[in-house]
Amino acid sequence: xxxxxxxxxxxxxxxxxxxxxxxxxxxxxxxxxxxxxxxxxxxxxxxxxxxxxxxxxxxxxxxxxxxxxxxxxxxxxxxxxxxxxxxxxxxxxxxxxxxxxxxxxxxxxxxxxxxxxxxxxxxxxxxxxxxxxxxxxxxxxxxxxxxxxxxxxxxxxxxxxxxxxxxxxxxxxxxxxxxxxxxxxxxxxxxxxxxxxxxxxxxxxxxxxxxxxxxxxxxxxxxxxxxxxxxxxxxxxxxxxxxxxxxxxxxxxxxxxxxxxxxxxxxxxxxxxxxxxxxxxxxxxxxxxxxxxxxxxxxxxxxxxxxxxxxxxxxxxxxxxxxxxxxxxxxxxxxxxxxxxxxxxxxxxxxxxxxxxxxxxxxxxxxxxxxxxxxxxxxxxxxxxxxxxxxxxxxxxxxxxxxxxxxxxxxxxxxxxxxxxxxxxxxxxxxxxxxxxxxxxxxxxxxxxxxxxxxxxxxxxx
Length: 462
Prior knowledge:
The chain is an all-alpha fold. It contains 23 helices and no strands. It has helices at 2-12, 17-24, 28-31, 33-56, 58-77, 82-94, 100-109, 116-143, 148-167, 173-186, 205-221, 223-251, 257-262, 265-277, 279-291, 305-308, 310-322, 332-360, 364-392, 399-412, 414-428, 431-442, 451-461. Helix 11 (205-221) packs across helix 12, helix 12 runs antiparallel to helix 18 (332-360) and helix 12 (223-251) runs antiparallel to helix 21.
């Protein structure tokens, strides 16, 4: 729910762009800054919150984050000028502690090899929230004044915060051990301390800076993190590009504001289909690991993506050449292709996150942080270029912008196949991966399967 709420806040604003433009006398392009600034701030904000959740626990950090995000909705809704909205949106984005903190919560509750079902659900919540925004936003734009866009965000966020407050306990193990140690000392047992209680400086400046900088260092220095994050970020940017393209595309069939919002439902359906499609592979992986704990290399988690990633290019080409409008094409045709894009978008996000968790072990939070950074940052940039992109590439011709995106998608997905076949070689050159290999050797863990064994296992799984 936390992830849905925060991604809902990022996408529903698109339906306030035109009303805000009219109310404050600014251009629609200027009004889109409110969406861009939220997403870019969100990209960095989720990473800035992460160290504090490691130290003080997930629960208080998420509660504080939700409280601040909700508070900043009030000045946005009551704004007397456009500048107030921009400031409130920036503060709301930087206050959002989704992404790395919610994945950290998953890491608290499950071992890395048992996290896949939970990670799949978090990914569904993340991408699903981005689509629920325009579906609900269509009704807000059609029937309510612009400021209700922010009141609805506040109502939804307040409900989520209340649910989190009542039903979600603390999960950070060091915090729980510290609490238990204090309880036992109060009960009369002496010389019992939690893991953090004897440290003179629990959260030094150096520790914070190291934790904050590691996602950015890995993003720039680790080829796996860089290329797969860019792939994931580009895929997410497509959804925000669609926020602009759907309006001119579906107006050709006479769709109004509400109907255009409902046109996002096929994307949501695609996400659920993709979510369910991972179950057989996750189940098969768990069976193999029970018999042979070290049989599967991390690249095995990219296997399903080999077949689903091309759906992004196929979907974009199909969407491009079915959005020419009536009478040649029925309205449902571009919706079907948008569903294929959604399937690929979910699978890319899920597989890249899953692969990084398996590849980087204790550094996985930083690796996935780079992924989240790319997704939110590129989505924020997309909020600014998407409308001019569709209106200026070739006026009165909607098929060419999506065709360009399809060609770019084809190029961006190539690294998936490179990492699947050459991933072990690439990881051998990684400083972080070498550290993990040394740790495994020190623990006396058996070596992973060879490339030949890995591909044989993948074939058996298929």
